[in-house]
């Protein structure tokens, strides 16, 4: 569940923000100081009934008597989410009854006990249907979207009420059940306010976020515990978990500052009636001096926050999804640590929505243009405006420094692309790898990509450049033209190029177009779907051979239909893209993976009816082999290996060129010749 849209009226600097569309993963608001960026994050906090931020008379726009109205739209409010958050207890109780009935049937195998067992399973379906329908009706959920409006009225005191899309009032208690948790990191980390806030500090919330992800090993063994005994057991268990978390945070912290002289200590005490209190201390092990981190400077706090977030990425099991609201995550961090911060936030955003404000060209540069909006203020009224890549580059001063002093530049989309291209270059000529700068653009809409492209255009592409991207579900030649037109339009139509002679402008355009190469296949994973590469991940080579033939048949057919507009992108990518064959759904939220697997297998089994294969190894065999490959590759990754690096390193270049990788290898060989 994530915030897909926001609308603010009469709150702080906003008279009427209009609809602000947000992204599921990560989103940034940029702008000058005092334009209203913080007011956006404040409005989201004020909306959530669990938040510590309230609404005061000073929050009404220019002292207006009109109501403050904050509207939020949430998406992915599906059946599994509602079950987990609204009626899980009822489902669990019914499952207990099912298990009891099943045990009785196993013990006494009679028709009567079988009927009782079947009846309890039917009852479970009835409960799920009833609870789902009631939740959908109560909250006004439509097509897995939840709309909630908060209205704050000014009077002798400020009153807040909530309404669904049918304008029916919702109680705060009901909202607390369905809304996701938010975690807030403010920009002004005021030691005085934070250190006196006790349970209400942002640092307490972050430590609690780690604690929520930790596994407990408390075993009660049916022993009845008194209130004080239970409190003691919980306190000891919490301290044990906090010690383990503190060790990990300390490691990241010392790595960040380049020293091993500091130790982070987290102390926790549990009181069942009051909750858990956390105290975070930093100790200089060389002097023995210790300080509460909330009494330290903002720079120290920022580094501890980075270390906590990195720890969260390491231990997260996706048991709970959060919405993180962060003001200026880069504050007082060295540029190197700013890069680590945005990399960490990008990793967190794979499973949690991250919304932040920023002044930093480094943190924003790794985002795509549609993941950023600019906030401006005129006559005391804030407005949220769309941006162009060029505008963000000019606003924040994103520097295209990645390409300086390089002999050759290769832009790629993802982490896997970097690993594959790097290993292949080493395989072709290991001596040249240090002369080539391989830059991950995440996508070719990435702001850092535009900044580098602008420098390359200005320098007439004096450095050999390769802009490499996957075909996805578009025809390579069409995608190449689209990418060229988009970059050329974004950059070459700027005023700085207005006085160029037509011949020089055409030269720049031609060099840009020559540098773009679109792979012939959907994604780089496809080039590794070969028997000789996957044989050690399958138990039967013949079954593997026919499973790959089966996959190739449907991959080619479904991709062609997608390229011709006869197959939707999400249908192809959810069932037929190479990643689904090799890894399953590692990019999906954990709670959604089982459902996506079921959907994929249902889709494939339906194809059995039209399958024209002459051998007896058909789609059932493909699905069986696929399950085995995914399980074995997952173990391979858990052991710290990388599939693509392993395949390239363990095969001769000639062997690699015999298969699908020939396309990429010959492309790189031609590129390397330009550098030698």
State the low-pLDDT regions, or none. Answer: 189-199
Which range best describes the helical content: under 10%, 10-25%, 25-40%, 40-55%, 55-70% or over 70%? 40-55%
Please give the CATH class of the largest domain.
Answer: Alpha Beta
Strand content: 15-25%
Structural class: alpha/beta
- How many distinct domains? 5
Q: Any idea of the CATH topology of the largest domain?
A: Rossmann fold
Distance between the termini: 51 Å
Global outline: globular
Please, what is the average pLDDT? 82
CATH superfamily of the largest domain: P-loop containing nucleotide triphosphate hydrolases
The CATH architecture of the largest domain comes to 3-Layer(aba) Sandwich
Provide an overview of this structure.
- By secondary structure, this protein is α/β, with parallel strands linked by helices.
- It has five domains: 1-77 and 141-180 and 321-392, 3-Layer(aba) Sandwich (Rossmann fold), CATH 3.40.50; 79-125; 188-319, no CATH class; 399-521 and 671-675; 529-641, no CATH class.
- It contains 25 helices and 20 strands.
- Strands 1, 2, 3, 5, 6, 7 and 8 form a seven-stranded antiparallel beta sheet that branches. A six-stranded mixed beta sheet has the order 9-13-14-4-15-16, with helices on both faces. Strands 18-17-19-20 form a four-stranded parallel beta sheet.
- It is globular and about 75 Å long.
């Amino acid at each position: 569940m994530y915030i897909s849209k926001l609308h603010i009226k009469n709150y702080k600097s906003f008279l009427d923000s209009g609809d602000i569309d947000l992204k599921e993963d990560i989103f940034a608001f940029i702008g000058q100081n005092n334009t209203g960026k913080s007011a956006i994050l404040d409005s989201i906090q004020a909306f959530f009934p669990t938040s510590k931020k309230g609404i005061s008379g000073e929050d009404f726009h220019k002292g207006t008597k009109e109501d403050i109205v904050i509207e939020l739209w949430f998406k992915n409010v599906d059946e599994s989410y509602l079950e987990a958050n609204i009626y899980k207890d009822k489902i669990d109780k019914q499952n207990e009854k099912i298990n009891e009935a099943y045990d009785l049937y196993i013990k006494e195998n009679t028709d009567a006990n079988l009927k009782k067992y079947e009846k309890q399973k039917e009852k479970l379906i009835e409960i799920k249907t009833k609870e789902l329908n009631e939740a959908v009706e109560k909250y006004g959920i439509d097509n897995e979207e939840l709309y909630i409006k908060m209205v704050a009225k000014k009077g002798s005191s400020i009153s807040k009420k909530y309404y669904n899309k049918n304008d029916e009032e919702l109680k705060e208690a009901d909202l607390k059940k369905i809304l996701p948790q938010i975690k807030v990191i403010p920009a002004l980390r005021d030691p005085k306010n934070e250190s006196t806030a006790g349970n209400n500090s942002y640092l307490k919330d972050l430590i609690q976020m780690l604690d929520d992800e930790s596994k407990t090993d408390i075993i009660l063994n049916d022993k009845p515990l008194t209130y004080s005994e239970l409190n003691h057991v919980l306190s000891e268990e919490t301290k044990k978990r906090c010690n383990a978390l503190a060790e990990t945070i300390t490691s990241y912290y010392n790595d960040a500052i380049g020293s091993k002289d500091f130790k982070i200590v987290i102390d926790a005490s549990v009181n069942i009636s009051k909750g858990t209190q956390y105290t975070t201390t930093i100790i200089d092990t060389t002097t023995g001096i210790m300080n509460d981190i909330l009494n330290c400077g903002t720079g120290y706090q920022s580094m501890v926050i980075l270390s906590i977030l990195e720890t969260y990425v390491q231990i997260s099991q996706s048991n709970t999804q959060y919405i993180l609201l962060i003001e200026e995550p880069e504050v007082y961090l060295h540029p190197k640590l700013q890069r680590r911060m945005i990399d960490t936030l990008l990793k967190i955003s794979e499973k949690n929505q991250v919304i932040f404000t920023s002044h930093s060209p480094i943190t924003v540069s790794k985002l795509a243009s549609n993941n950023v909006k600019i906030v401006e203020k005129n006559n005391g009224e804030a407005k949220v405006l769309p941006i162009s890549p060029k505008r963000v580059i000019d606003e924040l001063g994103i520097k295209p420094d990645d390409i300086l002093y390089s002999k050759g530049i290769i832009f790629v989309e993802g982490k896997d692309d970097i690993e594959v291209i790097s290993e292949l270059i080493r395989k072709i000529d290991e001596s040249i790898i240090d002369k080539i700068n391989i830059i991950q653009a995440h996508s070719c809409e990435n702001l850092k990509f535009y900044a580098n492209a602008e420098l390359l255009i200005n320098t007439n592409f004096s450095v050999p450049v390769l802009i490499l991207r996957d075909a996805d579900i578009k025809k390579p030649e069409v995608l190449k033209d689209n990418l060229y037109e988009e970059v050329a339009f974004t950059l070459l139509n700027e005023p700085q190029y207005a006085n160029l002679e037509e011949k020089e402008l055409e030269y720049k355009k031609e060099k840009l177009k020559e540098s773009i190469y679109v792979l012939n296949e959907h994604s780089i994973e496809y080039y590794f779907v070969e028997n000789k590469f996957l044989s050690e991940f399958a138990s039967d080579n013949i079954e593997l051979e026919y499973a790959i033939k089966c996959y190739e048949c449907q991959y080619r057919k479904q991709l062609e239909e997608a390229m011709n507009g006869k197959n939707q992108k999400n249908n192809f990518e959810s069932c037929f893209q190479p990643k689904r064959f090799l890894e399953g759904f590692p990019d999906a939220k954990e709670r959604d993976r089982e459902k996506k697997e079921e959907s994929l297998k249902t889709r494939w089994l339906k194809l059995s009816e039209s399958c024209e294969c002459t051998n007896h190894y058909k789609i059932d065999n493909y699905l069986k082999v696929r399950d085995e490959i995914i399980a074995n590759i997952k173990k391979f990754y858990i052991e710290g290996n990388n599939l693509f690096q392993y395949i390239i390193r363990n095969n001769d270049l000639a062997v690699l060129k015999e298969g699908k990788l020939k396309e990429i290898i010959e492309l790189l060989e031609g590129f390397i010749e330009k550098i030698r």
